[in-house]
Design goal:
mainly beta; 352 residues; 4-stranded antiparallel β-sheet
Length: 352
């Protein structure tokens, strides 16, 4: 039985302050325990379908799916690590289950700030739950933020956020990148939790202007405490970004909270993210908000956790959608098949 006594309300308030790193909020509205339970029941995916995608060269590691729909086809950007660093590729599917790699979108360059790292994530994907999952064109371009750096190796050196654009979302061609990062841990206004390095980013359109700006970026970063937290930045034009708030919106102050994805279910924003090392392994979590700023962290069971040979080491880095009455939870699985993209669903599905 769900009860909303004074203890539950106080506990929810504590969780919000904890998730927000204790920062002050405006127009604070709590997400009740009963609403959190309802959201969990809506988004949970208890059926593991298995591995849905490996890079054609299976010696390469793949990561971080971003999934969208255009012209009746599903598309996935994903990142590839080959020992030198990250590059960004595109895959295509007719049914969300069978995927074919199409080609490269961001590649290594020479003598640039991002020479050896370009891990990209498509911006402005429509995020209404059960919506069309199209991508908005802004100023005659499609946009992508990316993790960038010039050191070779697995996430080596100081990583920053770059910006790329193209005029054709699904054409296999190299996107145009900017000559300088849009956010860096070396910026004068870098906050305490992001002054070492910055990792994955997600840009959405804030149609209700909760922050006062039309574009909101969530990104995970590492600071002085040597743990990863999720922070916010905002922009009026996609080109110039400023930090929002003084503290993370999601943090455990140990391990990792990262790789945010946003959906909206009725009037509740849901942030899917992964946790790691604040308890054993890597696993999928979520938080809820009414304003994109103040977040209530779920305290119940993981959405996805290691359980199979193919994800026995890590089950993390989410992309979750609802399509034709089924919830599809894509995630990065690390196990006996290497680093691959796996899928869990709300109902049992078949590729037949």
């Amino acid at each position: 039985m769900r009860t909303l006594g004074i203890f539950s309300v106080l506990l929810t308030g504590i969780l919000i302050l904890y998730a927000c790193g204790g920062q002050k909020s405006r127009s604070l509205k709590l997400v009740s325990p009963s609403t959190m339970e309802d959201i969990y029941d809506t988004i949970k995916t208890p059926y593991k379908y298995g591995v849905v995608f490996q890079h054609p060269d299976t010696t390469k590691l793949i990561d971080s799916p971003t999934i969208f729909r255009k012209d009746g086809q599903w598309h996935m950007t994903y990142i590839v690590f080959d020992g030198q660093g990250y590059e960004t590729w595109l895959a295509e599917s007719p049914d969300l289950l069978q995927w074919e790699s199409k080609g490269k979108l961001l590649s290594f360059t020479q003598n640039t700030w991002d020479a050896n790292q370009k891990a990209g994530y498509v911006s402005l994907v429509q995020y209404d739950w059960g919506g069309d999952y199209g991508v908005e064109n802004y100023k005659d371009s499609y946009w992508m933020t990316y993790l960038g750096g010039n050191s070779s190796g697995y996430e080596k050196g100081v990583l920053k956020i770059g910006l790329a654009q193209t005029d054709d979302l699904t054409q296999v061609q190299l996107w145009k990148t900017k000559q300088a990062p849009v956010l860096s841990p070396n910026d004068e206004d870098a906050r305490w939790f992001e002054n070492k390095t910055i990792y994955k980013s997600l840009v959405i359109k804030d149609t209700l202007s909760h922050t006062g700006s039309p574009f909101v970026m969530f990104y995970n970063a590492k600071g002085g405490g040597d743990f990863e937290s999720i922070g916010m930045a905002v922009s009026d034009d996609m080109l110039n970004w400023k930090r929002y708030g003084e503290d993370p919106v999601i943090t455990r102050k140990k391990g990792i909270c990262g790789d945010a994805q946003i959906t909206k279910i009725n009037d509740v924003y849901v942030m899917f993210y992964f946790g790691a090392f604040w308890k054993p392994g890597a696993f999928e979590r979520f938080a809820c908000s009414y304003d994109l700023i103040n977040w209530t962290d779920w305290t119940g069971p993981d959405l996805i956790a290691p359980s199979e040979d193919y994800d026995r080491e890590y089950a993390h880095k989410p992309w979750v959608i609802k399509w034709n009455g089924i919830v599809y939870h894509f995630y990065n699985a690390v196990g006996n098949q290497g680093r691959v993209i796996a899928l869990a669903t709300s109902k049992q599905v078949s590729s037949d």
